Amino acid sequence: MLAFLACNAYNFCMQYTIRNVPDTLDEALRRAAREQGKSLNEVAIEALARGAGVTGERGRQRELSDIAGTWRNDPAFDSALAAQDTIDEEMWR
To answer: What mean pLDDT is predicted for residues 1-28?
Structure first.
């Protein structure tokens, strides 16, 4: 909707002609337009904006923030890691 509203006058918008739209994409766009009560043009512009990452909506995040900061004290784990903190003097001669 953001991309569509930003361009509300015919003379101020870039016009595109898109050819060879696959049947499955055409059906999905038309179905979305019907379900949302919007024009095919509005739905297509919103889909293009989402795909280009210019909507302001947060897309799927690919990060670890949901598990960051979840460290727990575990003595057994700490003792297992303690061996890694030991320097082997023979190895460094």
So the answer is: 76
